[in-house]
Structures are given as structure tokens and as C-alpha cells.
Amino acid sequence: MLSKRIIPCLDVRDGKLTKGIKFKGNVDIGDPVEMAKFYYDQGADELVFYDITASSDHRNIMLEVVEKVAGTIFIPFSVGGGIRNLEDMRAVLLAGAEKISVNSAAVKTPEIISQGANAFGNQCVVLGMDVLKVPVSATIPSGYEVVIHGGRKPMGLDALAWAKRGQELGAGEICLNSIDADGTKEGYELELTSLISRAVEIPVIASGGAGRPEHLAEVLTKGSADAALIASMTHYGEYTVKQIKDHLHGAGIAIRRFW
Amino acid sequence: MLAIVDYKAGNLTSVERAVRHLGASCRITDDPGEVDRAERIIFPGVGAAAASMENLHRLGLDKALGRAVHQGKPVLGICVGCQIIFEHSEEGQTPCLGLIPGKVKRFDSSLLTKEQKPIKVPHMGWNQVTWRKSHPVFKGLQNQDQFYFVHSYYPVPQDPEHVLGTTEYGLTFASAVAKGSLAAVQFHAEKSGRAGLVILSNFLSWDGKEV
Hints:
The structure holds 2 protein chains of 2 kinds. Chain A is of the alpha/beta class.
């Protein structure tokens, strides 16, 4: 049976983790390659690197990070952030990532999804969506609106319609981030995740709000998500990937438990 | 020398990195002469069957692969390299290499999971392989081990003898196959963590014999 995936997400700026990640015993790790190895050994099923490097001069630093990660861990990982065109995608894939995640660029130029899918295959293209709950209106019939630039800019785009459009354009997966739930540690946005996941045939990764293993169990069952993104709950040593997986297994959820 | 066959299908550097990590040297090549001279061959691939077959023909790699298998040289197919070794693929109705009797079919999206939900296509993520027979390339693996899959088509070998491992996804399909000195896996061994590296490592020391 296909397992649900647990995916730690690492934010990288200019080749370094944006916050030094602290584990129990206060070990501070700032190197994304070491962190990737750490999560690989812990049994993460996949990793996401989010490159928040502002200047394009530092892009090749990120590519060096991707290359080092690809030579160190042997599970799939994706890279998102600042990918604007086919050349950016090609560079990241050649450096060793399996997938590229497009978010703002896809909202501005939806064709980037189909171009990427045609050039590299659907499985390479993840549509990242940042979503905010809003009053139901004629423009936003689902009550969920797509926003870009870290949630500051509403786009007048209905999340449900955009998810379906993304699938049509050739995205192989959707990474669905709830801005409302993000950082709360009170659980994923179940209603949104379930709405999108049931409407598309491609896998949906739930993101935003994870604080306890129970939250992952909920979103992978009631939320119908295929995978769950985690960050702070494991970055600061509160939980290990193994503890989360043991909980999910105990809840009867199919999970990869041996690595 | 180990040759990784380059027929312009997808990212071959992942396979190269995994092989190097295991301490072996290898070379990505699209030259049939180099494939002829190699001691062993990995035949990877991500992409469409028709385009893959066209590139193999154009580069003369189809014949080189046939010669290698005929001579009993160890060959490992991965993903699309586990599909176009059969006779025919439903993907673009493509005649393929015919190195193992059988065909390649598409997952029907009306198939249901164990929870009676429609399956998503592609089959993407970690799944188990039930090992049906022992084989030098798959030694040391357990039924609980999981592997990373990304595919919309699956192999259907004609002869059950060639099925080494099976996986459940709406139906039971052959996820590991072998015939003579040719072994192939539908999943990405190079991205399947320790269990995947076990397969690559076994392959690196395999003499091409089935026992």
C-alpha cells in the first residue's frame, strides 16, 4: 500500500538555514547539507528546500547546496523559491533535485507549469499555493483565496479553481499552505486540505499549522492529504520524525517505518 | 567500467551520484561502443516510451543493449528502463526492445485503493515490494522495505517466472523483474534510501547469473 509521506521543510538563505536549527542539547545546526543528512537518517520520506535568497547573485550558492545534498542523501527532495523560468528549473534539476516548486511565478505566468511539465515531466513540477480564508464571493466561490509574496498580496484567484487549473496545466503535485494555520502549531487547515485534495487527482501535500503528531494524523485522514510538511515541530527537537511516524502507525496510517 | 546509458531521458546524475556514493566509478554515455566495452550497464530513465525508443534507435543504443543482454553482461533497468525492455508499451502504442516477453500498461484511474478511494495517477511515493523469489540483485531485502515510485505505467511480464517482486496499487503489478543477466525495477532505487542502495550495491558485484 502507498505510504503517506512526512516531509521536513528547510528554509535556506544565501546557502545557510535561515534560523540555526536547535536540537535537544542545544546543538545549533546552520548547514543545510548536515540538516538534510540528519533528516535522512531520521527517516524523512522527502525533503523540501525553500530558497529565500533575495539576490540573484547568490543563486549559484543555492545550486551548490543542492548538489551537495544530492550527493549526501538518497531520497527525493524538491527546491522552491525564486524559480521564474525554464532555465531556473533546469539548473535546479541538473544539480540533483527531483522536483521544483513554483508558486508566485505560476500565478503571474501559469504557462511556466506546462512548460516545466513538458520539458521535464509532470512529476517534476510541484504547484505551491499560499491560501487565505476569505468571505465567499462571486470571484472567490470556495472562500479560499490564493495569495503571493508570503501572504501579503491577494490575487483575486479562487484556490479551488487554481488547484484544478494547475492540474490541467500539468503540475504533478500540489503543496498547499494555509496562511491562517501557518505558525499557529494548532493543526493543519483540514477543511481547505480536504476540499482541494478531493477535487484533484494529483497528490496534495498539506502545509502550515503542524504542532503535534495528532495534527498529521488528522490531515492525512480527515484532510485526505497524501503527505504532510513539517518544520518547527522537529527543527527544535520537540519531536523526531520517528516519534511522528510511530504515532501515525499506531493510528493505522500507512507509513514507511524501516529505513 | 559501469556505463549509465544516456538516451536523453531524464536526470541521470542521480544514478551516477548513488553509484559513486557506493564507491564505484561510472560513466554516463550515449555511445554504443562504450556500452559494448562496459562491464556492466545501468539503463535508467524518466520520460515517455515513444521518445525514449526513438532516441535509443537513433543512437544505436537499442542494439548495444540487446548485445549486452545476449552476452550475459549484467544490466539493471530503472523506471522507464524497466518498461521499454518489454515488447510493447501502451504509452503512445510503442513497440519496445522485447528483451523480456510482456507489455506495459497504464494505471486505470478507476482502480480503487484498499480504502475504496480512486487511485491517483501517477503512482507517486513510497510503497512496499513483496519479494517472490530470491535473486542476487535483491538479496538482503525484506518485505517491509519500501521504495520510491513515480510512474503512470507498469510492466506486465508474460511469464510469471520473470516476476521477482510485486507491489499493490489498485492492483498487484510487477515492480521488480529479471531474466538472465537483465534485472529491472520500476521504482527509483537511487532515491529509495538504504533499501535502494542495497539493490545498487548488489548489482555492482553481480556476475549476471540468476543464482
